[in-house]
């Protein structure tokens, strides 16, 4: 029989089972999309009048219970935008753009908690963070009350970007001097070329006036 073979003996099978690494169960991280009620309709069907007369099965298929993460993201963006929107038709103000970026950033943060080696999405998240910081900085300078209300409604904290500093070395100074010299020489060549073109245009205009006279 099979168990008579040395490799199939119960002792070796038990040893193999003990030698297997224990599989860790991945804990489900809380998501900022968890507060969306499953019975809420998707963004494209929420305001349709016909939804009041459709069957419950159809409503369930068009609700967030059957929706993908992308469709849930649309609803979450709309919810955050409603908190800071200036008017019902406001879709492009700085406050609305900050709300949309906040939803994207939180989604990327949750994704990177599960996949910390995803460098591409980490780069996208840092770009969105920098863009949101610049928008909040503009609101802070122009309208401080709107800036405070936006941070409060979206539950975000503004931190200004730190000034960029670099250690000055002799090699860096030589490289900078060379770049400045090359830039100046290039500007001189461009100025000479523009002067030559200007003189050619003036000569053509003078010749055209003489022909007309």
Automatic annotation (TrEMBL):
Taxonomy, top ranks, is: Eukaryota, Metazoa, Chordata, Craniata, Vertebrata
Q: Which organism is it from?
A: Cnemophilus loriae (Loria's bird-of-paradise)
PANTHER family, from UniProt? 28S RIBOSOMAL PROTEIN S15, MITOCHONDRIAL, SMALL RIBOSOMAL SUBUNIT PROTEIN US15M
Signal peptide, first to last residue: none
| Keyword Ligase among UniProt keywords | no
Query: What GO terms fall under cellular component here?
Result: mitochondrial small ribosomal subunit
Name it.
Small ribosomal subunit protein uS15m
Q: Which SUPFAM superfamilies match?
A: S15/NS1 RNA-binding domain (SSF47060)
> Which Gene Ontology terms describe the biological processes this protein takes part in?
mitochondrial translation
The keyword Transit peptide appears for this protein: yes
HAMAP family referenced in this protein's UniProt entry, alphabetically: Ribosomal_uS15_B
Note the SMART domains from the entry.
Ribosomal_S15
User: CDD domains in the record, alphabetically?
Assistant: Ribosomal_S15p_S13e
Keywords for the protein's UniProt record, in alphabetical order:
Mitochondrion, Ribonucleoprotein, Ribosomal protein, Transit peptide
The entry's localization annotation reads: Mitochondrion
> What family is it from?
Belongs to the universal ribosomal protein uS15 family.
